[in-house]
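We give the chain.
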Amino acid sequence: MVKSLIQRACAPQAENLHGSTWTPLDSLNQRTWAPTMRLLREGDGSSAAQSSLSPKRRKTGGYPRAGLLTLKGIAIHRVRARDSGKSDDFALTTSRGMPIRSPVTRTSARPRLLLGRHHKRQPRTGTMALLTPHKTINYYHWITEVLGNLWLLKNAGLPINYVDQYLMGHSGAAWQEKILQLAGMQPERITPIGDLEDQFIDRMLLPSWGEVTSHSLPDWLSDAIHASIGFSRPQAPGTRRVYLSRQNASRRRVLNEHSLIERLRAHGFECHECGDLSFRQQQDLLASAGVVVAPHGAALTNLLWCAPQTDVIELHAHRHQDQSFHLLARQLRLRYRSHSIAGPSHSSRTREDDLELDDCDLAVVEWLVRDALNNTAT
């Protein structure tokens, strides 16, 4: 997204971006790490390999450190997609019309196209902040990026009313409207990326979280989200036993979910589809939960509302070892477990496969549930 701009703005290369200001936020550089884990199934080997909690530093392409990049006197342009099946791109240019970098696709726009339009009459915005560069974005990424960046701006000494327009993916969904209301953002300050047109910007704010990899998140993220919307976590786990279904999703569904739900209901679980609940209902549901079981998906973002020591069991495809919710659980001090499941017999064994639990998988999940319930009893 804005990685190359951040890297160029850091000393000793700051002079490469005329009119830019880099504000480091060194206190926000701590990371929550999760181990790199490869879960092996029968036929893959005799044991699972797990790395240290401080994995070797790899070349990740992440930002060098946390901070805020301010660009002054720039223009933003919509670059129409040639293919009707693709989304439009956006490009930032200097005050002279030369392209800087696309905040969405990391590719530079064609100079001739932008220079030809640069001197046309365009509206002007005072201060704009980029909260997320994605036009379409799911529940997890929207909440973490929008609320995380709002909190980072506040830590840079900028109150919410300092910014004239906040640029973000915004579909008008009820949960987005509710979250922005809780964050204290006025509707007239919201600029959906899909509605953005060419304009001049006096001051563009680009927050950076520092280095973020598939196995790390900023230490401050969960607290930042809570603070941004004024949420106070319960002090102790609730008593409800909750299963979060993905039956209405287009991918990573549990194909034989009825077999799983039947076993879970025998232990007092209730089944919910988060897409059928309002944002407040999702908060209340997870805040009252003592044990949560769910396949990997955006619904697990609601772990943010759980009390410390809530038990979480995540089910994911064998090829989809995503650590996002493990990292959140570590930050939130939840008791996290996961189980890796192979795809169905016709599966291409990709990370987006549906899940199909065999008898062994069902027995393992039931054992994990019993273990979690024993923990809550003690």
The chain has a mean pLDDT of 79. The longest helix spans residues 359-377. The CA atoms of residues 35 and 52 lie 6 Å apart. The first strand starts at residue 20 and ends at 24.
